[in-house]
């Protein structure tokens, strides 16, 4: 019976992908990004941290496809090497906030009452912060390390998952199948865990994909202003920050290529999220 | 009203109309060649079940098909002019502003049909000005329009927003809007679905009176044969995008020629029909052999002075009644009467604020709802929910849905569990081949049957049915009602049947309790209560039910005061 | 029930309703503001770096001297007591003194806030002026070239980080085309000192009638404002399109069409006025996002606003300015929400009787 459902979902996905090639491209792009992240040490043409002042600040050429920086390091190698770190930060941050946020939100959305109001208020406080400022303060407070970028990004993502799970559970708590489950002998907690969460998960998966892009931007932004990852570690935000010093003298490649990498990564995850939403939305099913 | 005057040239004529909708699954044919005509001043009822294409026909005629819908063939003529390819605006221009808008329309769900952030007076004025009235005249005209639809205190209501008006009031405003353009034809698309039966009567009486006064033609689209029979001089029956039969209501319903019409007429409950009438075929099983319980046996269920408050508002107040083993009790009332709250209280899904619930003499009202799932009595009280869509977990197959309570509440496992599920499904009329399907792969009637199989699989003693057929087409409803009745007779189950449909309750229940605003108004033996209601409210409810008599010969539409 | 509400009380009721709602929002914001205060206080207490060392005469200061400074600053007290004191200070308008500028934080913030606000408001105005027409155009013809273009722009817009788009704009308009001035600060260093009236340069120059100064300030403002506007264009256009599409598909638009209202009236009076409601809500959220994104844009353009001030303080382990900044941001956020509530109340009669 499950294979039947899986088969139907796969067929449905294939049908959607045919009708929406952009999602297929995005999925392929996300896959390529993950592969690049996994195999980056074997993919880079040059050592990403080896400097050679004789070729400093060279524009893109056959030898250096993306040009070189002020220390003569190959920019393409640095961008490729940075993929792993950027994706790892974003992925772990999003998964962390998803795991915590989904449970908190689901319980609050189902229980309602005072607990829900208190959590709702805390979430409001968190969101009352301009979130990027909050992330800045958190990294500064916890210490300028990569783990803390993950924690800070996870915390600023948390309110969204709590809200989302809360709203999704809230609209379903009055659904007949929830009451039927209780008439069938389930307690409240079991109803949340066995009936509501599984039904909310697909929508949350969409949220994960959309948030990945946002998390990448946040982490890069933090290192751009000098928090978290430190030079000379290759990281997209740092690469842009280093290139910023030379933009007024026309060394465009130092900003454009790391920026392009950032943009493509975020675009892939966003388009994938939009596509997933179409696939999972049961109203769209035939 | 003009009856049977064929010589008059038709106001609207539709010839072999075909409409297709572009969906993600490809093109779907909604209309497969529909032809019909409406004479000036005539009232035509367009009846059929969901998906029959009755609304699509009306929307095509009124030029209101959405982007996905396309006229693929046929012709629509209005006053003899071919308007098939004209836009709504062209249609208005073609007819000339002096004649006003050609076709007015009123819709299902009147509150959503009004602009939520614009006072109703301004909305009326918008229509009047679009039809050539000056700004100054528009307000007076709007006032007159509201008065014409019998809205009390119309001058003040001009400044009201839709959310400040009741559903019935919104529908009157909608009627005023539709009539403000002085159309020659009014199309009413399920105008009273979702309204209470007493409101339905006042709204429909108003429509009938206004169309008659102004000599307008009326197309009434409805799934309710009684409503169509009462308010229309001619009826057309649609099925699956085709018009299968048309004629005067009396003749059509007393001797239907098309088998679909016959099925539909048979399946529609009337004030005198019995369950056997609805589902021709096998005779009902023998009367239940219910031995009289020895004296002193406590009632199966006894509710004493129960109440439920939400904040300051009382949803249910001081309700008492008792049920015997195997008895069927109907709980009727309009929206807001508290009948659904009461059913959830008895199922122990929510906690009462006052009163006592006794099951076989033992108190169950004191067990908190959040712990009741551990009570041995959980198994004894089961419920069937109203909305077959929402009451099945989308991630469970039909088998899993039925098996879930069996697993939780009985000791059956493995092969024994499987046999119980298949047996329960079979008794609910579901073949074993359907058990692997997921809710979105089942029809509405099949989903309803899964819900019933799930409830009876643990062999309960009391089954609460919360509007079990409200979302179903009549032909499906008939089958489900028959099934429920058979189950009750075979198992000696007690039924608490919650419904707004008095005809259904009369057929299904031995005794009936009438609720209004959370309180019991009247209770008693169903036969007595329906034949000789004692309270004014019950009389009003009964009088408001639209009805038709298939047995009667030709019956003209009742004159409306 | 709402149905029996006397309609005669209507003329007064929307404002009363809005006032009630705004009051409720304000009351419910106070705990949030307090939470923000406590949170920043605690965060700043665990920041690395010891301000007592910083404030002492120098790295060679004796242990006794450092202890003395610590005592003066109240840092030797238990944390709860420090918190109460801090709250008392904030209540009386004392936000502390910045160690880097040597000025009271309140003075610094007051001097720099207009720069940030001018940038944010200009960007929001540009973004709204572009996003709403684009969203409407896309929704009126779903599936058309315009629609696809807008959706593409939206997809792209959310992917480009402000610090990259800002730098690329500098490259194109400053380095390549020479159209934009040197991207440092609000005004050309060689220009005359601006008049100090409101702190908003565009307003001040306009007030004194200095056309050249105004153009100068505007040319400095264009690139950062554009950077920020591009960043928030996508969510605004997206919500406009989605909300307009939803409204156009709703029952009351079908009613308006069935009644033969002129198409202009249907789109503008009926659809747009309803569709603008979610846009208002999102605009409030977007404004808060921009307050955060200010940090990046101000850094790229060396803009002398509050965000770059806070960033410098943060990197220098300077507590007070960061606390002051965060409190300022939270208060601004509350103000923005109040404004949105009032506007929403004016636009939607339903909320005044909720």
From TrEMBL, chain A:
Keywords: Cell membrane, Membrane, Peptide transport, Protein transport, Transmembrane, Transmembrane helix, Transport
InterPro entries in UniProt: BP-dependent_transpt_permease, MetI-like, MetI-like_sf, OppC_N
Localization per Swiss-Prot or TrEMBL: Cell membrane
SUPFAM superfamilies in UniProt: MetI-like
Coiled-coil regions listed: none
Lipid bilayer topology: Multi-pass membrane protein
GO cellular component, one term: plasma membrane
Annotated protein name in UniProt: ABC transporter permease
Originating species: Methylobacterium oryzihabitans
Automatic annotation (TrEMBL), chain B:
SMART domains in UniProt: AAA
Domain of life: Bacteria
TM spans (from-to): none
Pfam hit, one: ABC_tran
GO annotation terms (biological process): peptide transport; transmembrane transport
Keywords: ATP-binding, Cell membrane, Membrane, Nucleotide-binding, Transport
Compartments where located: Cell inner membrane
InterPro entries to which the protein is assigned, alphabetical: AAA+_ATPase, ABC_Ni/Peptide_Import, ABC_transporter-like_ATP-bd, ABC_transporter-like_CS, Oligopep_ABC_C, P-loop_NTPase
Membrane topology: Peripheral membrane protein
Region (Disordered): 271-295
Molecular function GO labels: ATP binding; ATP hydrolysis activity
The ABC transporter domain, residue ranges: 12-265, 301-542
Claim: Nucleotide-binding is one of the keywords in the record: yes
One cellular component term from this protein's GO annotations in UniProt: plasma membrane
Pro residues bias (residue ranges): 281-295
Record-stated family: Belongs to the ABC transporter superfamily.
Record protein name field: ABC transporter ATP-binding protein
From TrEMBL, chain C:
Topology in the lipid bilayer: Multi-pass membrane protein
Principal location: membrane
Cellular component GO terms held in the UniProt record: plasma membrane
Pfam families: BPD_transp_1, BPD_transp_1_N
Entries under SUPFAM superfamilies matching the protein: MetI-like (SSF161098)
Domain ABC transmembrane type-1: 113-344
Keywords: Cell membrane, Membrane, Transmembrane, Transmembrane helix, Transport
Keyword tRNA processing applies: no
Localization in the cell: Cell membrane
Transmembrane segments: 30-47, 119-140, 152-177, 217-237, 275-297, 325-347
PROSITE patterns: ABC_TM1
Gene3D superfamilies xrefs: MetI-like
Highest taxon of source: Bacteria
GO molecular function, one term: dipeptide transmembrane transporter activity
Family according to the record: Belongs to the binding-protein-dependent transport system permease family.
Protein name listed in UniProt: ABC transporter permease
């Amino acid at each position: 019976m499950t294979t039947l459902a899986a088969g139907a979902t796969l067929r449905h996905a294939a049908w959607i992908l045919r009708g929406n090639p952009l999602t297929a491209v995005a999925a392929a792009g996300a896959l390529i990004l993950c592969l690049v992240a996994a195999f980056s040490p074997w993919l880079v043409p040059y050592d990403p941290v080896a400097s050679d002042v004789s070729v400093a600040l060279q524009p893109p050429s056959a030898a250096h496809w993306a040009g070189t920086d002020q220390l003569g390091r190959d920019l393409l190698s640095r961008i490729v090497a940075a993929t792993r770190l950027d994706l790892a930060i974003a992925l772990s941050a999003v998964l962390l906030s998803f795991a915590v946020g989904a449970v908190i939100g689901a319980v609050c959305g189902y229980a309602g009452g005072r607990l829900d109001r208190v959590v709702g208020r805390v979430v409001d406080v968190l969101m009352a912060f301009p979130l990027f400022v909050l992330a800045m303060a958190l990294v500064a407070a916890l210490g300028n390390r990569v783990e803390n970028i993950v924690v800070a990004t996870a915390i600023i993502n948390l309110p969204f998952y709590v809200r989302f799970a809360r709203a999704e559970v809230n609209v379903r708590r009055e659904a007949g199948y929830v009451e039927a489950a209780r008439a069938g002998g389930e307690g409240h907690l079991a109803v949340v865990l066995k009936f509501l969460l599984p039904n909310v998960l697909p929508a949350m998966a969409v949220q994960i994909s959309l948030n990945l892009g946002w998390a990448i931007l946040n982490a890069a932004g933090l290192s751009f202003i000098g928090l978290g990852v430190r030079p000379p570690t290759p990281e997209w935000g740092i690469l842009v920050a280093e290139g910023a010093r030379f933009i007024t003298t026309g060394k465009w490649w130092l900003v454009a290529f790391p920026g392009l990498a950032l943009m493509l990564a975020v675009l892939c995850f966003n388009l994938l999220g939009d596509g997933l939403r179409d696939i999972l939305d049961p109203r769209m099913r035939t | 009203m003009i009856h049977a005057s064929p010589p008059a040239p038709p106001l609207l004529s539709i010839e072999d109309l075909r409409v297709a909708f572009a969906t993600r699954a490809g093109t779907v044919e909604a209309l497969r060649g529909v032809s019909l005509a409406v004479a000036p001043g005539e009232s035509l009822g367009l009846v059929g079940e969901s998906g029959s294409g009755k609304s699509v026909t009306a929307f095509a005629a009124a030029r209101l098909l959405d982007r996905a819908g396309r006229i693929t063939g046929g012709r629509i003529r209005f006053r003899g002019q071919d308007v098939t390819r004209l836009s709504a605006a062209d249609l208005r221009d073609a007819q000339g502003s002096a004649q006003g808008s050609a076709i007015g329309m009123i819709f299902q769900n009147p509150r959503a049909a009004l602009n939520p952030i614009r006072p109703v007076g301004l909305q009326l004025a918008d229509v009047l000005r679009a039809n050539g009235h000056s700004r100054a005249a528009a307000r007076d005209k709007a006032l007159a329009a509201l008065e014409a639809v019998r809205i009390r205190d119309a001058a003040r209501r001009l400044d009201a927003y839709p959310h400040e008006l009741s559903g019935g009031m919104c529908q009157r405003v909608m009627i005023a809007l539709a009539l403000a353009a002085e159309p020659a034809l009014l199309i009413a698309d399920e105008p009273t679905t979702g309204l209470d039966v007493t409101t339905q009567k006042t709204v429909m009486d108003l429509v009938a009176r206004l169309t008659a006064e102004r000599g307008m033609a009326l197309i009434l689209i409805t799934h309710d044969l009684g409503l169509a029979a009462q308010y229309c001089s001619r009826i057309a029956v649609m099925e699956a995008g085709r018009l299968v039969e048309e004629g005067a209501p009396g003749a059509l319903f007393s001797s239907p020629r098309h088998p679909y019409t016959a099925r539909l007429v048979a399946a529609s409950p009337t004030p005198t029909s019995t369950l056997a009438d609805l589902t021709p075929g096998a005779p009902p099983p023998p009367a239940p052999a219910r031995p009289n319980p020895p004296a002193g046996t406590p009632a199966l269920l006894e509710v004493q002075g129960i109440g439920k408050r939400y904040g300051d508002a009382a949803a249910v107040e001081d309700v008492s009644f008792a049920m015997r083993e195997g008895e069927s009790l109907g709980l009727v009332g309009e929206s807001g009467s508290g009948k659904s709250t009461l059913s959830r209280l008895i199922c122990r899904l929510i906690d009462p604020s006052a009163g006592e619930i006794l099951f076989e003499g033992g108190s169950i009202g004191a067990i908190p709802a959040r712990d009741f799932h551990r009570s041995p009595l959980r198994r004894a009280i089961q419920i069937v929910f109203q909305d077959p869509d929402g009451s099945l977990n989308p991630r469970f197959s039909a088998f899993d849905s039925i098996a879930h309570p069996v697993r939780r509440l009985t000791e059956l496992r493995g092969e024994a569990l499987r046999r119980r599920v298949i047996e329960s499904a079979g008794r609910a009329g579901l073949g074993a081949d359907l058990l692997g399907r997921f809710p979105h792969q089942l029809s509405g009637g099949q989903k309803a049957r899964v819900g019933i199989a799930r409830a009876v699989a643990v062999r309960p003693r009391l089954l609460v049915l919360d509007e079990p057929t409200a979302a179903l087409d009549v032909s499906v409803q008939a089958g489900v009602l028959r099934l429920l009745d058979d189950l009750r007779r075979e198992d000696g189950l007690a039924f608490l049947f919650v419904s707004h449909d008095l005809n259904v309750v009369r057929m299904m229940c031995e005794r009936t309790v009438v609720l209004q605003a959370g309180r019991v108004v009247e209770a008693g033996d169903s036969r007595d209560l329906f034949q000789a209601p004692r309270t004014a409210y019950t009389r009003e409810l009964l009088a408001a039910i639209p009805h038709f008599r298939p047995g009667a010969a030709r019956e003209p539409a009742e004159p409306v005061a | 029930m709402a149905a029996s509400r006397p309609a005669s009380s209507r003329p007064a009721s929307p404002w009363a309703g809005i006032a009630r709602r705004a009051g409720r929002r304000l009351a419910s914001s106070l705990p949030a503001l307090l939470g923000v205060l406590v949170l920043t206080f605690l965060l700043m207490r665990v920041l690395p770096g010891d301000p007592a060392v910083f404030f002492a005469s120098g790295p060679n200061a004796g242990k006794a001297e450092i202890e003395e400074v610590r005592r003066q600053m109240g840092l030797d007290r238990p944390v709860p007591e420090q918190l109460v004191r801090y709250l008392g200070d904030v209540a009386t308008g004392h936000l502390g003194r910045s160690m880097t500028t040597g000025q009271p934080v309140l003075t610094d913030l007051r001097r720099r806030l207009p720069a940030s606000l001018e940038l944010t408001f200009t960007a929001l105005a540009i973004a709204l002026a572009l996003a709403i027409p684009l969203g409407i155009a896309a929704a009126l013809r779903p599936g058309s070239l315009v629609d696809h273009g807008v959706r593409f722009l939206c997809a792209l817009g959310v992917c480009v980080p402000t610090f990259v788009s800002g730098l690329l704009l500098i490259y194109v308009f400053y380095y390549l085309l020479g159209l934009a001035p040197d991207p440092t600060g609000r005004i050309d260093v060689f220009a005359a000192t601006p008049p100090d009236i409101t702190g908003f340069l565009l307003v001040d120059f306009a007030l004194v009638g200095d056309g050249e100064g105004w153009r100068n300030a505007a040319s400095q403002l264009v690139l950062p404002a554009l950077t920020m506007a591009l960043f928030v264009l996508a969510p605004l256009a997206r919500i406009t399109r989605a909300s307009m599409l939803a409204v156009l598909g709703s029952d009351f638009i079908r009613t308006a069409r069935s009644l033969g209202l002129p198409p202009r009236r249907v789109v503008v009076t009926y659809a747009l006025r309803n569709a603008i409601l979610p846009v208002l809500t999102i605009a409030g959220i977007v404004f808060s996002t921009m307050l955060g994104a200010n940090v990046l844009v101000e850094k790229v353009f060396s803009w002398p606003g509050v965000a770059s001030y806070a960033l410098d303080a943060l990197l220098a382990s300077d507590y007070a300015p960061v606390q002051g900044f965060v409190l300022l941001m939270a208060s601004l956020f509350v103000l923005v929400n109040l404004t949105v509530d009032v506007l929403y109340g004016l636009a939607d009669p339903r909320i005044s009787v909720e």
